[in-house]
Amino acid sequence: MKNTGKEIFSAIGEVLGNAGKVSIIPHENPDGDAIGAALGLGQTLANKGLEVKVISVNDYPDFLKWFSSDVPITIYEKDKKAAKEWLFDSDVLICVDFNEEKRAGHLAKMIGRFSKTKILIDHHPYPGDFCHYTVSETQYSSSAELVYDVIGQLGYTEYINTQAAEALFTGILTDTGGFSHNTSQNTFKTVAELLNYGIDTDKIQSAVFHNFSADRMQLMGYCLYEKMKVFPEYRAAVICITKEELERFNFKPGDTEGFVNYPLSINDIVFSALFIEKENYVKASFRSKGNFPANKFSSEHFNGGGHLNAAGGESMLTFEETIERFTQLLPEYKHLLEETVI
Ligand code: 5GP
Ligand code: MN
């Protein structure tokens, strides 16, 4: 780890050594890394004898529901009372895979109110100062890869078991798009070590990537055929999906996961955007190649952020206005898009 000093781990070790109950919170709309990192850490701490629950603000995709874990996941939106009780009864709160309180959605205020020790383990740039201990390492592919090294630094490696290793592998697998981006020597070293715990990587690949409903595949086909607009002059592409279209294809959480990546497979496209009409806002996702800063684009225009090549945000304009706004922004970025080296 580059930025995190050794002292922080002895302090965190002392806190966890004296703790009984632990809450782990991933970001809103949790993805494979958020759930994988949370469950991998949670299972390891549970194996050490701590009482752990993951509290997610909202539900997570079906393709992440195959984990066998001793750590329960409480969905705040479904059971507010149980989530609140466990959180405020906990001795420690660990936030994983997000860099600002607001990324926890309706749990953000409760994170603020939690008065005992708070720890952040994350790999996004620009971490906010909302926890007592912040382990923020942006060179990591995923929070799951980082969690594995944090477990090592804490001297807890002996508590990793198959279930924890499965969860951590899943986090790395999903955040790297099946080892296609953001990988490093440490990523593959971590994966090689996780294989020591008897995980079935074929089974996990299949559960994560080959587990879609027919509706989801048809929605994807529809989006690529009918909804994708390519702007070769800006090396960009956009897909926009309305609420009505999602309903037509019996949308379930997670169904649009990965759609934003597809336009980047087009020769010479370096920037891709996906806009999805939600109840009260429009959800935005951005992906880029090379040095085009998707996170800067998102923070400047769509109240969001994320990584250089993968960012998200939102728009309070109407769906049509949002798309128009995006289209109008492209000429402003023409120079930067043209210069992007891939
Ligand atoms: P996605 O497009 O998958 O929702 O998000 C891509 C990346 O950007 C993820 O790493 C996610 O954590 C981050 N991200 C998504 N939405 C937001 C947002 O509203 N604010 C910030 N700061 N990051 C976001
Ligand atoms: Mn992540």
Automatic annotation (TrEMBL):
Q: Which SUPFAM superfamilies match?
A: DHH phosphoesterases (SSF64182)
Q: Domain of life here?
A: Bacteria
Spell out the Gene3D superfamilies in the cross-references: 3.10.310.30, inorganic pyrophosphatase (n-terminal core)
Q: Where's the DHHA1 domain?
A: 248-330
Against InterPro entries, the record matches this protein to:
DDH_dom (IPR001667), DHH_sf (IPR038763), DHHA1_dom (IPR003156), Oligoribo/pAp-PDE_c-di-AMP_PDE (IPR051319)
Q: Name one GO molecular function term.
A: nucleic acid binding
Q: Which residues form the DDH domain?
A: 21-172
Please give the PANTHER family that the UniProt record associates with this protein.
BIFUNCTIONAL OLIGORIBONUCLEASE AND PAP PHOSPHATASE NRNA
* Name used for this protein in its record: Bifunctional oligoribonuclease/PAP phosphatase NrnA
Native species of this protein?
Maribellus luteus
